[in-house]
Design brief:
24% strand, Type 1 dockerin domain, 321 residues, Immunoglobulin-like, Four Helix Bundle (Hemerythrin (Met), subunit A), alpha+beta, six-stranded mixed beta sheet, 11 strands, five-stranded mixed beta sheet
């Protein structure tokens, strides 16, 4: 009997909670959603970005900003939906900060769902292909009592279609860079095959070259992959990544040859011998003031701006193992 009474109490509590929340239909309701739309166009064209409201039953007014990249598009006008609730509105395209539009609206009743306003933009001549973010910032949405209503904002964008000639030129430039890859990889492999001196300086430099080779291979693209790219921004970004990887590889290859000398193989014949010590001895005493320092400074193994006894001792120790 006690068990039944306890169960009955629990059921009663659950029913009471359900009744309470049943009289509060908005408790679990999702926030209204404000969506900044997307438009596509070419340089010189004017496109319209719709701003819409969904899941709304309370919003009656708003004040907000729309931001964009003024180097790529020009804001032309804001058009409020004439079929929305009638109310007072304001807009300012000529704000002190470029790339910034201020918009406000107030009605005496909740706004209808759907379009609330449209912003038109002119895509600048010469604008590169790619995406231009069109975003809502500093927004405040209110109900009829001017109380703030939380909303979910979905940001928008303008997709700029690249001029075909400009895009093809960018792709051709990228392909010209990829044509340098085989020779750069071959030279790197030749350096690895040639410089095998078993000293710490060379071991570290060899690892650096191997990592740089992997980076070039990762950044390299086939002609088919380049042809599939749809925007100048994408092409230029990939081209810049490959150029940086190639520059790094070439620097690492040069560093490997330098490491060979720093390791004591002054004549770069693949071993450290008396011949290397003879080179250091021949240039002994020269310093940064010597007329041929640009040529012989590589024999300054401890980098103290002179070829001294320390450099000769270093080579001698390496000869002795």
């Amino acid at each position: 009997m006690k068990k039944f009474s306890f169960t009955l109490k629990i059921v009663t509590v659950i029913l009471s909670i359900c009744m309470v929340f049943g009289t509060m239909p908005g408790v679990f309701a999702a926030n209204p959603i404000v969506t900044v739309g997307t438009a596509t166009g070419k340089p010189g064209e004017t496109v319209s970005i719709p701003v819409t409201l969904t899941d709304n039953s309370v919003i009656a007014g708003y004040q907000l900003s729309i931001t964009y990249d003024p180097s790529k598009v020009i804001a032309k006008n804001v058009v409020f939906n004439p079929n929305q609730r009638q109310g007072g509105s304001s807009q300012n395209l000529n704000t002190a900060a470029e790339g910034y539009i201020r918009i406000a609206y107030a009605a005496s009743e909740p706004l209808f769902e759907g379009l609330i306003f449209t912003v038109s933009f002119e895509i600048k001549e010469g604008a590169p292909g790619g995406e231009v973010a069109v975003e809502m910032t500093g927004e405040r949405f209110d109900d009829v009592n001017a109380d703030k209503v939380p909303v979910t904002v979905i940001q928008g964008k303008i997709i700029v279609e690249a001029d075909n000639a400009e895009l093809e030129a960018a792709k051709a430039a990228f392909k010209a860079v990829t044509a340098e890859v085989p020779q750069a990889l071959q030279e790197a492999q030749q350096a690895l095959d040639k410089v095998t001196l078993d000293v710490p300086e060379v071991a570290a430099a060899r690892t650096a070259v191997q990592n740089a080779i992997a980076a070039v291979q990762a950044a390299n693209k086939t002609d088919a992959e380049i042809d599939a790219m749809s925007s100048i921004e994408e092409v230029n970004a990939a081209k810049a990544a490959l150029e940086a990887a190639l520059d790094d590889l070439r620097a690492k290859v040069a560093g490997l040859y330098e490491a060979q000398i720093k390791g004591g193989d002054l004549n770069q014949d693949g071993k450290i011998s008396v011949g290397d010590l003879a080179i250091a001895a021949y240039h002994y005493g020269k310093d940064s003031n010597s007329p041929d320092w640009d040529v012989v400074s590589k024999y300054d193994l401890n980098k103290d701006a002179r070829i001294g006894i320390e450099d000769l001792v270093f080579v001698a120790i390496r000869i002795l193992g």
